[in-house]
Specification:
single chain, about 260 residues, mainly alpha, 9 helices, 4 strands, about 10% strand
């Protein structure tokens, strides 16, 4: 129905505005006027925090309108629900003071977004050379062996291990996706590959674990990581225009193309 379509559009627009401005914006209420619905938007600064490093400097300029148009179209399109879920979590991260916790969450969201976008874009599956060497060795020496040293239950266990492994490393998956999207991973952003293993294995839980052991270093690193997430979203939305880039300390206005 017309109302359902408008509500779907409103949800996509609100989420797009939230991501672009860095603050969760909620629908306060609607007022029905005949067959039309007048909508009131409400910006909410909840205790759950602020994304801190938002991609849009001024939402009122032409770049702002173009970014919202591209983001809204993406969220209403194929795969929009999956990306919306990631954005909702992104906008509900802990407060700015909890830099360590937010860093862990952004790392997980980057990985989830990479997998989602690769699946939606049907990025060509490529295999890691070292993984294939290991697979070939195990197949020839264990799975295809007739030696009694490898009973059926052992072979089944090894086969299950091989079948469950991802043939591409996370670094390779990110690089392939970035190449597919036409964007570049800057040197400062590569800190993700140092932080992510700690976040995945539960050994990172405090800002002082980050480079240089200072709160400022922790904050800067969070900016680099958030910038990766922002660029993936903007590229997926086919956005072309100005945006705030945080691959350098303090951020800078660049053109996303």
């Amino acid at each position: 129905s017309t109302n359902e379509e408008q509500q779907e559009l409103e949800r996509a627009l609100l989420l797009s505005m939230s991501f672009a401005s860095g603050s969760k914006i909620r629908l306060k209420g609607t007022c029905e006027i005949g067959e039309e619905i007048a909508t009131t938007l409400h910006r909410s600064y909840s205790d759950s925090g602020h994304s801190i490093f938002h991609p849009l400097k001024f939402i009122e300029d032409l770049s702002g309108f173009e970014m919202l148009r591209c983001l809204t179209r993406m969220l209403k399109g194929s795969g929009g629900k999956e990306i919306s879920t990631l954005l909702e979590v992104f906008l509900l991260c802990p407060s700015p003071l909890e830099v360590g916790s937010r860093t862990l969450i952004v790392c997980a969201l980057i990985e989830g977004l990479v997998d989602t976008l690769r699946r939606l874009r049907n990025t060509q599956v490529q295999t890691d050379e070292k993984f294939e060497v290991a697979r070939t060795f195990i197949n020839s020496k264990i799975l295809e062996s007739t030696a009694t040293d490898f009973p059926p239950e052992v072979k089944e266990r090894w086969k299950a291990i091989i079948d469950s492994q991802e043939s591409l490393s996370l670094r390779s998956k990110i690089q392939l996706l970035f190449n597919d999207l036409g964007i570049t991973l800057q040197d400062n952003e590569k800190v993700f590959f140092k932080i992510r293993p700690k976040s995945a294995h539960g050994t990172f839980a405090h800002p002082y674990d980050l480079p240089e052991g200072t709160r400022q270093a922790a904050f800067d690193t969070l900016g680099y990581l958030t910038n990766i997430f922002n660029k993936l979203i903007l590229a997926a939305a086919n956005y072309k225009g100005q945006y705030m880039d945080y691959s350098v300390i303090g951020g800078q206005v660049l053109t996303f193309s």
